[in-house]
Amino acid sequence: xxxxxxxxxxxxxxxxxxxxxxxxxxxxxxxxxxxxxxxxxxxxxxxxxxxxxxxxxxxxxxxxxxxxxxxxxxxxxxxxxxxxxxxxxxxxxxxxxxxxxxxxxxxxxxxxxxxxxxxxxxxxxxxxxxxxxxxxxxxxxxxxxxxxxxxxxxxxxxxxxxxxxxxxxxxxxxxxxxxxxxxxxxxxxxxxxxxxxxxxxxxxxxxxxxxxxxxxxxxxxxxxxxxxxxxxxxxxxxxxxxxxxxxxxxxxxxxxxxxxxxxxxxxxxxxxxxxxxxxxxxxxxxxxxxxxxxxxxxxxxxxxxxxxxxxxxxxxxxxxxxxxxxxxxxxxxxxxxxxxxxxxxxxxxxxxxxxxxxxxxxxxxxxxxxxxxxxxxxxxxxxxxxxxxxxxxxxxx
Length: 397
Description:
Strand order of the largest sheet: 4-3-2-1-5-6-7-8
Structural class: alpha+beta
Order of helices and strands: HHHEEEEHHHHHHEEEEHHH
Shape: elongated
Helix content: 40-55%
Largest sheet: 8 strands, antiparallel
Radius of gyration: 29 Å
Number of helices: 12
Distance between the termini: 52 Å
Strand content: 5-15%
């Protein structure tokens, strides 16, 4: 068996075994690509009229939101850029829930209480990450299919590669006036090749989430040394300062706001336990996430606390650390702005078509093989009957 025939077999069987999952991952990724833009257009409660006035501090917004969802745990208070509503985030892993309370940051008016796990886009995201299965089952299945898809992409490029210069032009164009089988073959090969270079990036960034061993190897290969495991530094409960009238989260917010007046997003995390620190996320660009500064403060002394993982200050992040922090923005194409999102959208759409066109190529070949076998059987029988008739004729003479 030749090298290309071996690669073809590998490509075929990986495609058959993972095609349905790859289709689901690609089509859900495609549908999720512009979720932020669509939600901004269809959810007016995300916006408020901007005023030249101070916003309410985190403790005030927290108290207002708590009345809407009593007994639920508040994860953070988020201030978006001017003209946007503030968000109070309620989240718990056990029992699992995720709510958003949108408020006017100037008046405290409740604009919307939203179950962030309900609706079209959460449904799509659940399919993209977990295939709508229980998380402990869906996540490894999706990750394994992504790994197989990466191998399939590489094998597909090998199979696509032209044997000689005469075949090169054919590999880059689709014969639209050909029969449907040929058009289907060209759609799989040509579009698959064009999309493969973006698809490999989408697959690799997906594998960073899929497997911890892959994420750590990817980070180390890029030269990373810090831990990828998030760990919150602890406040020193032995040196508690006398409680002041202004809550710690308000003082921290005022400090961050004065230091970063042009930040687009400031998210103040509420301490969970007496030893928890106050985490604050400061993002200068609300279109991406990788530039976010993650800072941690002792909830009693307000002293800033250092961390040894990649989720710290951007200025202390190495190239490898930034690569990991960029993973979501690269995966969605947001790192290149709207053109990047469009590129990811069309690449995902083409990837979703590959299992379909690939299946028809396989099905067409199987059908042709069957037709050839039937033709051979008919030919053999015809030849045999001809010999019999000839023999009978000779005997009679």
